Automatic annotation (TrEMBL):
In the N-terminal section; belongs to the ThiD family. Catalyzes the phosphorylation of hydroxymethylpyrimidine phosphate (HMP-P) to HMP-PP, and of HMP to HMP-P. It catalyses: 2-[(2R,5Z)-2-carboxy-4-methylthiazol-5(2H)-ylidene]ethyl phosphate + 4-amino-2-methyl-5-(diphosphooxymethyl)pyrimidine + 2 H(+) = thiamine phosphate + CO2 + diphosphate; 2-(2-carboxy-4-methylthiazol-5-yl)ethyl phosphate + 4-amino-2-methyl-5-(diphosphooxymethyl)pyrimidine + 2 H(+) = thiamine phosphate + CO2 + diphosphate; 4-methyl-5-(2-phosphooxyethyl)-thiazole + 4-amino-2-methyl-5-(diphosphooxymethyl)pyrimidine + H(+) = thiamine phosphate + diphosphate; 4-amino-5-hydroxymethyl-2-methylpyrimidine + ATP = 4-amino-2-methyl-5-(phosphooxymethyl)pyrimidine + ADP + H(+). The keyword Nucleotide-binding applies. This is Bifunctional thiamine biosynthesis protein ThiDN. InterPro entries: Aldolase_II/adducin_N_sf, HMP/HMP-P_kinase_dom, PM/HMP-P_kinase-1, Ribokinase-like, ThiN. Pathway: Cofactor biosynthesis; thiamine diphosphate biosynthesis; thiamine phosphate from 4-amino-2-methyl-5-diphosphomethylpyrimidine and 4-methyl-5-(2-phosphoethyl)-thiazole: step 1/1; Cofactor biosynthesis; thiamine diphosphate biosynthesis; 4-amino-2-methyl-5-diphosphomethylpyrimidine from 5-amino-1-(5-phospho-D-ribosyl)imidazole. GO terms for biological process: thiamine biosynthetic process. Residues 13-235 form the Pyridoxamine kinase/Phosphomethylpyrimidine kinase domain.
Length: 423
């Protein structure tokens, strides 16, 4: 089977939030082999871009020669380029068959200008040879105005796709102007450095794996949304953290979490049994949440059985906790219920953040899990590690452990069991 090699050609951001490092991290998590060529060294962080040193044309060419001599490349994704780099990419495009995904990085989010009019004129030739161009709204307007002002439509004989990126993206083509499709997004209240790089390299990676354009954009959108939600906090802002949450990842996490649970003498099992669940990113319904179709139940030997399989849509009860918690922290995608013990809660307060709800305060005609989780999160001011209630009306008291995924949740349960065993 042909190896998926993507060639990333762009600038070097030492923080890895943008540029070839961000692109390579994105390609790697998507199962594509990232070959990278650096066109310029760009000292920067979330505060500013401090400088830009272009790599000599000879060294860029030697990097290209080294790669094409030894690898088959199906997609080339471009970031910050200079004139030499564009000249060379177009030269190699004449001799090798690869798709170009061009992310026209005209300036940084910290307003450092990467492209002057002379270089933008050369970019038009690269756009003409590209399969897809991914400008943000401002870059798109700059490009179209430049072509109009300089009457350059005659230099364009092909019709590349353009994805105008934003929270909602608009798919069009360079010549047809009309919007073919709008891809709706979800806004997270964060300014994250490098999202354009992650989004365009994710789309390029899915294309490299053989996905069609629309599927590549749709999956790329999930990648960049996760990369924003799990972004790395820096002193001045956030750096993109290339992350991809899909059904395969959720099932793998759950399987490994159950593997870890079986390694301990887990005894904090409630009468109704435990379940453990993990959701896709920003789940819309319990169908986006995977859990056990059965339960974790005590056996007569003091141990426990894990009954059932892991399936999406298997648990509405635990799913409601996750579906509610995500509104307070979109990173929280997992939960497991364990047995409540009176003196355990006090013992846990040193290591874990805890909140609770009281069933006696529950209003009529509500889902207890939705109301209780909302109540506990609002009282806590976010999503705590633990939400408990002391039961009532024939309902068993319960502890619910929450986390970013089921592996983290089980590691918390292992710690809780240790504390319980030593009370
Ligand atoms: N705060 C956010 N919440 C959700 N999605 C976001 C957010 N910021 C960026 N994105 C996603 O990242 C994609 C690219 O972001 P944007 O359009 O800002 O590119 P850009 O301006 O080129 O970014 P940069 O220059 O920082 O690399 C958007 O299409 C959007 O899906
Ligand atoms: C190296 C590099 N590539 C792309 C961007 C776009 O944000 C940046 N700031 N730095």
């Amino acid at each position: 089977m042909k190896k998926h090699n993507i060639l990333i050609i762009g600038g070097y951001d030492p923080t890895g939030g943008a540029g070839v490092i961000a692109d390579a991290k994105t390609a790697k998590i998507l199962g594509v082999n990232p070959l990278t060529i650096t066109t310029s060294i760009i000292p920067q962080n979330n505060r500013a871009v401090y400088d830009k040193m272009d790599i000599p044309k000879k060294i860029i060419e030697e990097q290209l020669e080294a790669i094409f001599e030894d690898f088959d490349v199906s997609v080339v994704k471009t970031g910050v380029l200079n004139k030499d780099a564009i000249d060379l990419i177009l030269k190699y495009k004449r001799h090798y068959d690869f798709k170009i995904v061009c992310d026209p990085v005209l300036k940084s989010t910290t307003n450092y200008k990467f492209v002057d009019e002379d270089l933008l004129r050369r970019y038009i030739d690269l756009f003409n040879e590209s399969y897809l161009i991914t400008p943000n709204e401002e870059e798109f307007n700059t490009i179209i105005n430049f072509i109009e002002k300089n009457n350059l439509w005659g230099n364009i004989d092909k019709n590349p796709y353009i994805l105008i990126t934003g929270i909602d993206d608009k798919l069009t083509t360079l010549k047809d102007k009309g919007i073919i499709e709008t891809i709706k997004g979800k806004k997270i209240d964060k300014e994250v450095h490098g999202t354009g790089c992650v989004f365009s390299s994710a789309i390029a990676s899915f294309l490299c794996k053989g996905e069609g354009l629309r599927e590549a954009i749709k999956k790329g959108k999930d990648v960049v949304l996760a990369s924003v939600i799990y972004a790395t906090k820096t002193k001045y802002n956030y750096n993109s953290n290339p992350t991809y949450i899909n059904k395969e990842k959720v099932i793998k996490n759950l399987s490994y979490a159950l593997y870890l649970l079986k390694k301990i003498e887990f005894s904090l099992i409630p009468e109704v049994g435990s379940n453990i669940a993990e959701s896709l990113l920003l789940p819309n319904s319990f169908k986006d949440v995977a859990a056990l179709t059965g339960r974790i139940i005590k056996n007569k030997l003091g141990g426990f059985y894990i009954v059932g399989d892991v399936e999406f849509g298997a648990s509405e009860h635990i799913a409601k906790i996750i579906l509610t918690a995500k509104n307070y922290n979109p990173q929280i995608r997992a939960c497991m219920n364990i047995r409540y013990e009176e003196d355990l809660i006090d013992a846990l307060s040193e290591k874990f953040s805890i909140s609770s709800f009281d069933r006696k305060l529950e209003p009529p005609n509500v889902s207890t899990m939705e109301w209780g989780t909302k109540y506990a999160c609002e009282k806590f001011g976010g999503v705590p590690d633990i939400i408990y209630d002391k039961g009532g009306d024939g309902k068993e008291p319960m502890i619910r452990v929450l986390g970013v995924n089921t592996i983290e949740v089980v590691k918390k349960v292992v710690e809780i069991q240790k504390i319980y065993d030593h009370i």
